[in-house]
Amino acid sequence: MVSDETAGVLFSVGIGVVVTIIFAALFELLRRVLPRVYELRKELQRIRLKDVNGRVVWAPPEYRLGRWPLSWLWAAHEINEGDIARFVSLDAFVYLRSLRSQFLLFGLSFLLTATVLIPTYATGSRKNRSPVDPLYAEGLNIISMSNLDERDGRLWVTLVIEVILAVLIFFVFYKDYSRYTYYKRKYLASMRPNSFCVLVRCVPEWFKDTNHIFQFFERIFPGEIVYAVHAKYSKQLVSLQLQFNKAVTAKEKFIWQTIKGKPKKVPIEIKVADADSTGLCPQKVSTPAIDHWYERQGALWSDIHSLQQDTDARAEIVVPTNFALIVFKTRHAASQIIQSQLWFEAGAFIPERAPEPHAIVWKKLAQSDWSNILFSTIAVVAITCLIIFWSAIALMVSALGNLSSLSMTAAFSWLSVVNTWPTWVVGLIEGFLPPLIMAILSAVFPVIAKVFLSLGRAYDILALERQVRNCLFIFLYITSFWAILVSGSILSQLNAIVSTGSVTSTVQLLSQSVPAQAIYFLNYVLQAALIRAPQVLLQEVRLFLRGTLWVLLRPKTERQKRALDRGPHSFFLFWKLYAVGECVALMSLVYGTIAPLMNLFATAYFLVAYYVSKYNLCFTHYRAFQDGGNMFRGHFWCLMTCLFTKQAIMAALFGIFKAPVQAVLEGFLLIFSIMLAIIISDRFDRVAKFGSLVSVYDSYGHTIDKDDEVPLPYVTEYFDPGLRPLKHPKNLSGCSEAEITAAGLLQFIQPTTGKDEELAPSPLKQ
């Protein structure tokens, strides 16, 4: 007869396979119906969208993506990872390589443990005990460490496998870190805006004048400073530019409606003379909508142009910051300064490589120090409280997974009805539902954490995402692993603990029930492989957000459709998927030698996640900036934390199984692993963070010529958003020029020359 635990795993397999098939079928349908979502990069390539280097957005060749079912899988497989590093982003390359490496790691681990540990555990003696014995092993526990007795000689086999897996893990992670560092050096030496720009934090009060800042850096690097300014945020100018864009969008919308349907009118307020008084009173009149928005567009352009030219007027509306932006003439000068101590004190004039231009949240630069400290403190307290609250939820979820065990205690005797239910019902409730509920409830946390963390001085979008990833990993580490492990161990042995009343016996029971908790984690990883990973392919949250915006905005013009296509929902959620993968790796590493079947499920997860993520990154997602793979450094230490946790738990288990020699050797392995992780990090970390001057000079060739110096478009990317040159809006109404001319509306469309003209002076020209 199948045990309740085995039934739960079988339910996870069966339901997971069905859900995967449903998701795949829905995806095949939706990618044909919504190509602007599931083939976004091809759409962006069609409209010739360009990046800061003037290159058209890359999309895989069309012949790679057919219309037959599962053609997307082959298309993703055919794409070279080197092309992803060059044309998509280094972030994408690093993430995919990490998934591939973990797939190979757990695949090899499964082959090793399946051929050695599973036969070893299956010959254990606890399966022969009485079913009423708390240490009785049945079902999948027979091929786990739960089937071994104390002082069992088979524990030596477990220790040997532990050592082999540790060597394999460090070999894989070393290769990954080495490869990441190689590509990161090339990235930092390449022609990108942030290769020339340095952001200086904590600028002293007496350096808040732009001329002083320019002179200070010109003195250190003579002839290398192209643009040096005390960063300010022109809130009013940015607001006017947003209104200008709104006016252009509205004008084009009414042009589209005029040509496609009836002319629209919008009521506006003007002042006319009142016959009964000498003053003026407001009176509403109706005027053609196109005229109104065209006049509004012109008025806003005049206001913006005047403010950008009037230095005195602009000085009254800008918000000061304690940041400075320095753009250097060459990349090697910028690389040198970010590794230098500029000021007498460590807390002033702190240089760092500037984020890519589109990743900067300019208004956050103006946030005061005290508000940053206040909101950061609030975020820490709030996130801590959330983790504690979710730990309590984990306790309740764990109780759901141990209803049969709880029913044996007097306090929960009312649950004895559970023992009369069919095995498949108990397996569904105790095995399948708890990890599914925990995964669903945990999905809310990163959204809340991101809101709280963004209240601080989060001026770098990508740095904020790294913080959210770290918080999410800590959250999952505590609530989805430790809280479940501890509470599950207690609840599964609650009746025996109450009966014995002995502290020594209680500790022994709790510790020896740790291997039995593998069933919950097996279900969790299995559901991650068959439900959560395929769910990423479907992108139902993105569809919901995009659909909601479509209902609210009702996009008609090409400009509106492009804005809808490239919203935040089109960004790949590296921060979330990194953390989920790290949680799967944690459970799989810890239980990989306790319950070897875990390695098979982890292999399935990373295989599915690799192909799903590869397709999404190359076909469906686009973001105009990248982080240069900076998430990998935190990812490395998250995986090291998983490994250290595994080795600490195994050392404790060896001790509980009264195998002191194995416990001591496992402890030495833990110490050695910590030292080796520090050595690997020290070897690559500085180069991965700063790059190397040799790489920069090698990128120049034999001589440094004009092509190696900073291009003017790179400089303008780091202007205050309010000072960036305003450009002629192109005709993106969705109507051709012939249609607009036939409707007599040509005067409302400014002529396009193929190249945008500046409507405002550049700060460099001033």
Automatic annotation (TrEMBL):
Localisation: Membrane
CSC1/OSCA1-like cytosolic domain sequence ranges: 195-363
Gene Ontology terms, MF aspect: calcium-activated cation channel activity
InterPro entries reported in the protein's UniProt record: Csc1-like, CSC1/OSCA1-like_7TM, CSC1/OSCA1-like_cyt, CSC1/OSCA1-like_N
Keyword check for Transport: yes
Chief location of this protein within or outside the cell: membrane
GO cellular component annotations of the record: plasma membrane
Annotated ranges, domain CSC1/OSCA1-like N-terminal transmembrane: 9-175
Membrane topology value: Multi-pass membrane protein
Residue intervals passing through the bilayer: 6-27, 103-122, 155-174, 373-400, 432-453, 474-498, 597-613, 634-657, 663-680
Domain of life of the organism encoding this protein: Eukaryota
Ranges where the CSC1/OSCA1-like 7TM region domain occurs: 377-654
Family designation: Belongs to the CSC1 (TC 1.A.17) family.
The protein's name in its UniProt record: CSC1-like protein
Source organism (scientific name): Porphyridium purpureum (Red alga)
